[in-house]
Specification:
The complex is a heterodimer of chains A (365) and B (316).
Chain A lengths: L1 E3 L7 H10 L3 E2 L7 H10 L6 H15 L4 E5 L7 H14 L5 E5 L6 H12 L4 H28 L8 H15 L3 H16 L10 E7 L1 H5 L7 H7 L2 E5 L3 H9 L12 H5 L11 H13 L4 E7 L3 H17 L3 E6 L5 H26 L1
Parallel strand pairs in A: 1-2, 1-3, 3-4, 5-6, 5-7, 7-8
Chain B lengths: L2 E4 L5 H14 L3 E4 L5 H10 L6 H13 L5 E3 L2 E4 L8 H4 L1 H8 L5 E3 L2 E3 L7 H9 L6 H23 L19 E6 L2 H4 L2 H4 L2 H7 L2 E5 L5 H8 L9 H13 L5 E9 L3 H15 L6 E6 L5 H19 L1
Parallel strand pairs in B: 1-2, 1-3, 3-5, 4-6, 7-8, 7-9, 9-10
Helix pairs in contact in B: 1-7, 2-3, 6-7, 11-12, 12-13
The chains are: A alpha/beta (365), B alpha/beta (316).
């Protein structure tokens, strides 16, 4: 049994960590590229949203490397993501690929059904070891997030462009390679130390932008056309509404490990959106209000084209923009998105914010 | 007399007899917006983000139409009308979207109907709405019962394979109708003559007998839908799939037509599942029509006629 899973940003690090900790054979699909996208687009339903298409591309490429079992998250609505696993399985079947799938989702009939499915994957490993492995994977994702947050802070300040990203790439590798709790600890602190040594210009004016929106487009740099890096080049410090470890603990582990996820976004979103709308629509509105209260200069909403929850949020953000006096740019991404177009738009957006700050300063004088 | 406006769009097609009777029994005057027309569509497009699907844009147009003509607009937040099932995420956000993008709205009656987990709260919601018109729970309850019986008459008409007269769809079943074709699609598209470009009438003109999802009893649909390995968590998609599974086993069904709007999330998945399923069924072709605000009628006609020719050749 060779296991594979879809890519979503740095998610491959904890997932691979988890499975390898259990001595299972893992095939990490090649990083998403144009080829992945082309494969996915060719075989997916035309109007499906982008993540499905790329997932499918990932699976086809992993198949070529010998994978025969898919592990992925699921859901029970109302966002489309809940049906991904089933639809993808059917498409792969039509293509003549027979995968076995394990979907991690709230069980529909009874909990035993879920346990049985997990049991088939983990084989002879004890439940204690599975718990350990989950803990290990969570630590890995937490480490990745710590490094990433630092990178986001340093990008706009670095003296020589590209230094931070070089160390970042290195850090991800060393976290990925760590096989035990102790080596993981070591890799993380070493990476953070290295980042601390990057020469910076601390008197540079930094614009703070919050990235909000749909999880896949937020976390996967191939899909969002490296927007964080590009914003970094423009002197922008980026904070996302969503980090991998938070998602893992709230969505996959249902807050078993931490209880810090109290979800303040619900209260923040109250005046604008009173109900969940699936996906991350509610979070998007809540964090938009939150970020503006924290004094961020602007917000960028990312979403795959036709994403239902984000369309609802987009419509409501118009009102948030007015009330909170904060510029918001919405970018929809699909297989036709081009990098040049994105850069023009974020450059204009950052220019707008800088000019606004300039005017405010002049008025204050 | 209090005037209550009901947009003739989205859930209207499924529940209007209930809503109308309920409000009228409570002494309110019910004002429906006009059937969708180009002006309503245009106003809708102006008041909502471009990425929304056409039916949502049209809904906004209907609300714009009603805005200055009534005291209340009834825009329920239909989260879920059956256990463990949802409507569409856009339905979930409708009242909030309206408030965010249309200024000077009259009061909205926007009860949240969420029957995902249990349905004993339904009465609470009915009372929440009824309270605006009458302080007598008995009167509200009677109005609700009357509405429900009106709704079941409406549903009964469907089950007799007829399209209710209230929808004003000119459609006369005759015995000469040689082909039976299943028309799949959201009720707010296929029964909205402007959006569907009179598809049902056009099919009738070609002597096609139209059957739809509404003409099957929920009992059959639920039974059929259960055969699918994953629970379909959108109520509408479940109905569509259930009816596809059922009708595909019926000998007299010549084919399927699926009409959906561009950018429809549930339909993008449902269409894929239907295609995959019908691939394994002999002699049940599928025509997939997608509409948006730029769709031309000529294109729909051509495709419908070509599909008709294909079906005729198969039969003959």
């Amino acid at each position: 049994m060779k296991l594979t899973f879809p890519h979503m940003g740095n998610m491959y690090i904890p997932v691979k960590g988890l499975l390898e900790y259990l001595d299972l054979e893992v095939v990490v699909p090649p990083f998403s590229t144009k080829k992945t996208l082309e494969l996915g687009v060719k075989y997916s339903p035309e109007f499906a949203c982008l993540p499905l298409k790329i997932n499918l591309g990932n699976f086809i490429e992993a198949r070529e490397l010998g994978a025969d079992t898919i592990i992925m998250a699921g859901g029970v609505g109302p966002c489309r993501f809940g049906l991904y696993a089933q639809v993808e399985k059917e498409i792969l079947q039509d293509l003549g690929y027979d995968f076995e799938t394990l979907v991690l989702e709230p069980p529909d009939k009874h909990f035993g059904q879920f346990i049985a499915r997990v049991k088939r994957i983990i084989g002879s490993n004890s439940w204690w070891k599975v718990m350990e492995a989950i803990k290990f994977a969570y630590r890995k994702s937490y480490a990745v997030d710590m490094v990433e947050r630092k990178v986001q802070k340093l990008r706009p300040l670095e003296k020589k462009p590209g230094t931070v990203d070089m160390i970042y790439k290195h850090a991800l590798n060393s976290i990925d390679n760590a096989q035990s709790f102790s080596t993981l600890e070591e890799a993380t602190s070493l990476s953070l130390l290295k980042l601390d040594q990057v020469p910076i210009e601390s008197d540079r004016e930094v614009i703070k932008i919050g990235l909000i929106g749909e999880i896949y487009t937020l976390l996967e740099p191939f899909v969002n056309l490296d927007i964080e890096k590009e914003l970094g080049k423009l002197g922008v410090e980026v904070t996302r509404s969503l980090y991998l470890s938070e998602w893992i603990s709230s969505h996959l582990l249902k807050n078993l490990i931490t209880d810090e996820n109290i979800k303040p976004f619900r209260d923040l979103a109250k005046p604008y959106l009173n109900y969940f709308v699936g996906g991350h629509g509610w979070e998007t509105v809540g964090y938009a209000v939150g970020f503006s209260q924290e004094g961020y200069h602007g917000l960028i909403q990312l979403a795959p084209l036709t994403c239902m929850p984000e369309i609802v949020a987009h419509n409501i953000l118009g009102k948030v923009k007015e009330d909170c006096q904060i510029p918001i740019l919405t970018i929809y991404l699909d297989e036709h998105s081009g990098k040049a177009g994105l850069i023009t738009r974020i450059e204009a957006f950052v220019d707008l914010i800088r000019r606004q700050l300039e005017t405010q300063r002049r008025l204050a004088r | 007399m209090i005037r209550v406006g009901i947009p003739r769009s989205l859930a209207y097609f499924k529940y209007f007899p209930l809503w109308q009777t309920f409000f009228e029994s409570l002494g309110a005057k019910v004002v429906f917006s006009l059937p969708t027309n180009p002006l309503i569509v245009e106003q809708g497009i102006k008041s909502v983000v471009d990425e929304a699907c056409l039916p949502v844009k049209v809904y906004f147009g209907h609300v714009q139409y009603l805005k200055d003509k009534v005291d209340y607009i009834f825009v329920p937040r239909l989260v879920s009308v059956e256990r463990k099932e949802f409507t569409c995420p856009k339905f979930l956000g409708i009242p909030d979207m309206l408030k965010a993008s249309i200024p000077d709205l009259p009061n909205l009656i926007a009860p949240t109907i969420d029957l995902t987990k249990q349905d004993k709260y339904l009465w609470k919601k009915v009372w929440e709405v009824g309270r605006l018109f009458s302080s007598n729970p008995l009167k509200v309850s009677l109005a609700w019962q009357k509405g429900l019986s009106e709704l079941s008459t409406y549903k009964q008409t469907w089950l007799e394979e007829e399209i209710p007269a209230q929808l004003n769809i000119y459609y006369k079943p005759t015995y000469s109708q040689s082909l039976k074709v299943v028309l799949l699609g959201h009720e707010y598209i296929i029964y909205d003559q402007y959006l569907s470009m009179y598809l049902i009438e056009k099919m009738a003109k070609l002597n096609i007998k139209v059957v739809t999802t509404e003409m099957l009893s929920p009992w059959i649909i639920n039974k059929e839908a259960k055969s699918y390995p994953k629970r379909i968590f959108w109520e509408f998609s479940k109905n569509t799939l259930g009816s596809v599974f059922y009708y595909s086993k019926q000998e007299e069904i010549a084919g399927f037509i699926l009409m959906s709007s561009f950018g429809c999330g549930p339909d993008s998945m449902t269409a894929s599942i239907i295609q995959h399923y019908l691939k394994g069924v002999k002699d049940k072709p599928l025509l997939n029509l997608t509409i948006d605000e730029h769709t031309g009628e000529a294109g729909i006609n051509t495709r419908l006629e070509a599909f008709y020719d294909l079906l005729m050749r198969r039969v003959g």
